[in-house]
Amino acid sequence: PSRLTLSSSSSSLEDPCMVFCSPPNRRLYCALCNKVYKDPVITTCGHTFCRRCCTSKPNEKCPTDGYQISVVVANLTVSDQVGELLIHCKFGCQLKEGTADEWELMPEGGCPLTIKNSQRRLHEQNCEYALVPCPNGTTCPKVMRKHLDEHLRICEHVACPHSKYKCGFRGTREQLSEHLKSCQFEQFKEILSEFDDRIGSLNRQVKQKNEEITFLRQMVASSNDRVKMLENKYELRIGNIERAAADSTRRVGFLESEMQEIKTTGGSQQESNNFKCVGTFVGHDGPIWSLCTHGDLVYSGSSDSTIKVWGPVPTVWDPNTTYCCQETLKGHTNIVLAMVTWNDHLYSGGADNTIRIWRIESFALEGTL
Q: For residues 114 and 101, is the Cβ–Cβ distance under 8 A?
């Protein structure tokens, strides 16, 4: 494979060093940065550029047609083509002498593998030639992953397993074995381990309680929102009731004025024009709110939630004028406020927010609106 190098910023994690095994097709180069596409996107003018090239400069213009660049959608086709390019592992590459961002293959000692560009990160995370830190601390220099076990055998910074209890020993593994024979914490390791388990259990319980407290706080907040919503709802209803009460007061005042006028002018009218009570229907358990008639029948709606049907019933002593309750219609659950008849049906409206439809002939409830 050739040592074709590609310019790259060594300080940018988004654009690591790449050395291609063979020269990429020129169609895979961004016209703005003159590098192989990195996260290619299609812009409003229809051309493809690196996403970073389009977004790093807000007023960037297309070098082909001069239109201002704005990202529309990712170019998945070009992205797949770039992902298929073969590259050398970065742990087998080095900076070219005398440059700050030109890379080439190491003559020896580096990773010899070639991989697809799309698989680069997965390989580098597990590459045996990657430099990794010593788990014993930052004092040791980084070593290749494949040499880590050998380094740990001779590392002089192995910490005592009881370092979390403030034991300050550090040395080789052989020295650690000798140290443990006299370490004051080693004698109590079982007790310390038991304490650690108990502390871990308590920490888990505290975490669980904190989660429960967070949940309860969320529930309280939700309940407060619900209460506030209900308060607003009932304030609105109270306002409506107050307005309805004020309207009723005005109507009562008007009726009182009318009654007073009737009383004032009644004495000048002839006796033949006065109304007299000729009968009383008794049967409801509350005030009468509505009346209507149909033929010889009279319908009365009351606050006892019932409708009574009054009609003439001939008797021996008076075969023409006797009225009595022929039927009680039950269905409403609140005051019956209004009634009207149409054809062979009676329609009643109640304070229970329903309209009920009754058949006059059979007194049967046929529907509820």
A: no
Residue type at 103 in one-letter notation: W
Distance CA 154, CA 96 (A): 34
- For residue 154, count other CB atoms closer than 10 A to its CB: 10
Element holding 40 (H helix, E strand): strand 40-43
Paired strand residues for 210: none
Q: What is the pTM of this model?
A: 0.43
- State pLDDT tens for residues 198-257: 988 999 999 999 999 998 999 898 888 889 888 888 888 888 888 888 888 888 888 888
- Give the DSSP letter string of 179-226: HHHH-TTGGGHHHHHHHHHHHHHHHHHHHHHHHHHHHHHHHHHHHHHH
As a whole number, the mean pLDDT across the chain is 84
What is the C-alpha separation between 189 and 192, in angstroms, rounded? 5
**Which residue has better confidence, 156 or 303?**
303
List 350's β-bridge partners, or say none.
Answer: 336
| Degrees, nearest 5: CA angle 76-80-83 | 135
DSSP 230-292: HHHHHHHHHHHHHHHHHHHHHHHHHHHHHHHHHHHHHTTS-GGG-----------SS-EEEEE
- CA angle 103–109–113, rounded 5-degree value: 70
Percentage of residues in the chain having pLDDT higher than 70: 91
What's the CA gap between 357 and 361, in Å, rounded?
A: 12
